[in-house]
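To: structure desk
From: M.T.
Subject: fold request, one chain
Message: Could you run this one when you get a chance? Sequence is below, nothing fancy, just the single chain.
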Amino acid sequence: MLKSLMVTKAKEDLEQEIVEKEEEKQRYLVEKAPQVQSSGLSLAQLQELCLELHAKIEVVDEERYDIEAKVMHNTREIKDLNIKVLDLRGKFKKPALRRVRVSADAILRSLLGSKHKVSMDLRANLKSVKKEDTEKENTVEVIDWRKNVEAMSGMEGRKKMFDAAKGPAQ
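Reply: Done. C-alpha cells follow.
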C-alpha cells in the first residue's frame, strides 16, 4: 500500500516537473527569440534585420563553442582525476569467483531465450563401445625383445634381416 502511494506520488511529481520545464522553455523562447515582424518592411530594412540576425547567430555560436570547449576540458580533467584516484589506491583486487555449474539446457535457454524449449542429451549422441572388442585388440602377441638382441647384433644380424626381406620376394 505504501509502495503504491509512493509510486503514484512520484508519477505526479514527474508530470508536474515536465509541465514546469515546458513552461520555462516557452518563457525562455519568448524572451530570447521574439517574433520577427517582416511584413511591411522595405528592402533596406529587411537587409538590416538580416544583418542583426546574423550578428546574434554569431554571438550564440561563439558562446556555444566556448561552452563545448569548457565541457570537453572538464571531462578530460575528470578522466585524469579518476585515473589518479585508481593509481593511488594501489593494486587492483580481483574478487574471488565461484565456480557455477550450468547444464547444457540452461546454456541453450540463455542463448536461445526462454521461449525455446530445447533439451539436449549429450550422451545420446555418443558412440557405444563394447568391452569385448577392446580386449581382443589388446591381446596382440608380445615378444620379448631381449632374446633377439644378441642374435640380431652386428653384421650377421643385418645380413639375416637382409636375407629375410629378400627371400620371400623371390
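Reply (cont.): The two ends are 105 Å apart (CA to CA). Let me know if you need anything else for the meeting.
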